[in-house]
Design brief:
The protein is an alpha+beta fold. The chain contains one helix and three strands. Strands 1-2-3 form a three-stranded antiparallel beta sheet. A hairpin with a 6-residue loop joins strand 1 and strand 2.
């Protein structure tokens, strides 16, 4: 395979046979992977917090119902 440097862009090369532009800068790739993983972790954390909030709301509603029942019995 033959590659040519992309003019004016460090770390980018063009595959002569497919005309695809490739990034051969491993530090940039590792940085991208780290950002992607951090974003995925943040998304999972937000989903977990949302589920927890829904459960807390449900628990509060149940407590309110129990208090209402107790008050009506007095």
């Amino acid at each position: 395979m033959e590659y040519l440097k992309v003019q004016g862009e460090d770390g980018l090369i063009r595959d002569v046979s497919t005309q695809a532009i490739l990034n051969n800068n491993s530090k940039e790739y590792e940085s991208y992977i780290a950002r992607r993983n951090a974003a995925m972790a943040q998304k999972l954390e937000l989903e977990r917090q949302g589920k927890e909030l829904t459960q807390v709301k449900s628990d509060i509603s149940e407590i309110k119902q129990m208090i209402s029942i107790l008050i009506n019995k007095l």
